[in-house]
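In this section we walk through a basic example: taking a raw amino acid sequence and producing a predicted 3D structure, encoded as discrete structure tokens. The instruction is simple. Fold the sequence below.
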Amino acid sequence: MTLSASETWSRLLDRARLELPEQTYRTWLEPTEALELEGNTIVVVAPDRFAADWNESKHAQFLASLAPVALGHPINIVFRVDEERKSRPQMDLFVAPPPDQAKKTAPDGPATGVQLSTRYTFHNFVIGKSNELAAAAAQAVAAAPGKVYNPLFIYGETGLGKTHLMQAVAHEIMQRAPSTRVCFVGTEQFTNELVAAIQKRSTPEFRRRYRETDLLLLDDVHFLKRTEATQEEFFHTFNALYEAGRQIILTSDRPPSEIPGLEARLVSRFQWGMVADIEQPDLEHRIAILQNKARLDHLELTIPDDVIRFIAEHVRSSVRELEGSLIRLLAYASLKHREVSVSLAREALRDKLRLNGDGAAEEKHALNVQSIQQAVAREFGINVDGLRSKSRTKQLTVPRQVAMFLIREFLGVQLVEIGNAFGGRDHSTVIHSLERVEILCQDPAFNARVESLRKTLSDLHR
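The resulting token sequence is shown next.
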């Protein structure tokens, strides 16, 4: 299928919007239009000379790098000035639009101003054993917001689809009720806005914005830890929304009870509705995710099934890592002017894989819980059995805490699993250990010892 210039540019922009800050996209790329497409060169017009030069220097190369994934082949991008705008004064770009136009484009509350990814829908979310509970809960919330599973708390490691699922709920609700006021914000942004509101004495406006929304999506809620003022403000925001029957969806890298420094009253409220986890996908699920990725990017004929299986078998850390590997493979194939194959995938992803004695690829990660325990035991001159024992002597406690800390850092293992690897200790003990090592690392000598272990483990990781 041959794409027109506008279709080609639209696909590139859809991809760019996922990568660039929204303000950058809206300022520089949204006003552009495709003029013509000749061979592998697309000519794009910008509203003025400054915008054309800026896009040429700042965005042309970046957009071209997205082409292998978005289009399935490389492309050159040339920016020009829109001929119709050349004769207009430069200052008209900064003049407010006419009242009727401003009325059409100004956001009417959070529903029109919310920044959601067009790809993060239920249709594009691949369901498997690792996420079926969270997906079912999200679909139930989308069907009856504020009535079931309020709040919906989704937790899991980075890159497994928590934000995708949360935004899918918003898309579904807004499709059914376009006037729904939606607010999607990260916890860090929520905190920064609160600080700014306090400084500018505009706290009432801040509260009105968040407490009058119909659907609040708060990402990475684990960053609420140790921020007393933010926790206090969010506590009252949560109560206002909940009592008004408005839906709240939260995501975190761990369940509410395992977020250190989170006030008990917030932990309790986060558990009022549904707490659902997303785990790492199994092989069949990873294959389905990659197939879906290929379908979305119209690459079904470009990537053979055996290549998809090869990637799925050897990249197991997260959905994001899976998709990143696919993007990297396509870019590599484009640069080398070679067809996508298993042998090419082995070359392109060689730093993610390592070869066994038979020359076959296997997953790069040689590290595991046992190898980290062994490295720490050697460093501190103790036995691995001592790390796993019930003994609480300082000789064993500190190395045990360091081992837990490094396992979490290198492997991202869940707290419960870390506890099980050290004699069945509970998650609160693991949390204390992680925090204790952070404090101990303030001592230069202790930190140097941990850094030495990091280097040793990084060498094993290669």
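Looking at the output, two observations stand out. The two ends are 42 Å apart (CA to CA). Residues 85-113, 354-365 have pLDDT under 50 and may be disordered. In the next section we compare this with other chains.
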